[in-house]
Amino acid sequence: MGTSLNIEAIDLHYGAAQALRGVSVCAHPAKITAVLGRNGVGKSSLLRAIAGVHPVSRGEIRVGETPFGKTPPYARARHGLGYVPQGRDIFPLLSVKENLQTGFAPLKASERTIPDTVFELFPVLKDMLMRRGGDLSGGQQQQLAIGRALVTRPKVLILDEPTEGIQPSIIKDIGRALQFLRDELGMTILIVEQYLDFCREIADHIYIMDRGEIMHEGPASDLDLPEVKRHLMV
Ligand SMILES: Nc1ncnc2c1ncn2[C@@H]1O[C@H](COP(=O)(O)OP(=O)(O)OP(=O)(O)O)[C@@H](O)[C@H]1O
After folding, report:
1. Whose C-alpha lies nearest to ligand 1, atom 28?
2. Atom 25 in ligand 1: which residue has the minimum CA distance?
3. Which of 144, 165, 166, 199 satisfies CB 3.0 to 4.6 Å to 34 for a cystine?
């Protein structure tokens, strides 16, 4: 079946500055949905709102039938939401294993195991299990951040610019991993990105965001490319 993620007309403010204006996005079950936009248009703010690390000032976010309202981040994780933040937020002095174990926090003691899928998707993490997070390359850290989000066995996974600053071979691995999670585990995936070609390759549906608003949307296979590129140009 799979679980949908619905963002319904949300506004988000930083003090007096409004970063999101009436943003509505639907991430369908077992599909990859991408929100594309330039630097500073509000993509990270959208994911922070979904994860519950910044409050919305209007609108609602639902995972399946559950409205999140003011639900705190750890409770959203228990409801099946996995979040891979921008910049990866790896603990540089903790080992790869310990970094993965930080994902245990919202879980009951009986659920505190690292799923095999993490090492099947990213074998490098198994090879480097005892190395410090800070010793990994940027791409390996991104894989670690995704692995950590998978520790809670999410139904819905949201990722903030997973290709940022990463070499092409690892971008391909990450793309394949996300397609596996969609196709084999039926996971619902929402990514925010600047990298159009990556999204056209792996996403099913694409939204374009500009200055805090959704300007355009369509199936990835049938995008109005001139319109999309116009919004992505600086
Ligand atoms: N903590 C904050 N306080 C005040 N303004 C903020 C804060 N975080 C973001 N902003 C502003 O909100 C707007 C949207 O930022 P956001 O980080 O969501 O954009 P983005 O599309 O993710 O960009 P990037 O790709 O650079 O992360 C920007 O104008 C930014 O300067």
Report:
1. 40
2. 39
3. 199
* Domains along the sequence of the chain with CATH: 5-232 (3.40.50.300)
Closest approach atom of ligand 1 to CA 192? 22
pTM for this predicted structure:
0.95
Centroid of ligand 1 to alpha carbon of 154 (angstroms): 26
Q: What is the ipTM of this complex?
A: 0.94
Return the residue whose CA atom lies nearest to atom 12 of ligand 1: 19
CA atoms 223, 227, 233, 234: torsion sign? negative
Per-10-residue mean pLDDT of the chain, 234 residues long, equals: 93 96 98 96 97 96 92 92 90 96 88 94 95 94 96 96 93 96 97 94 96 94 86 80
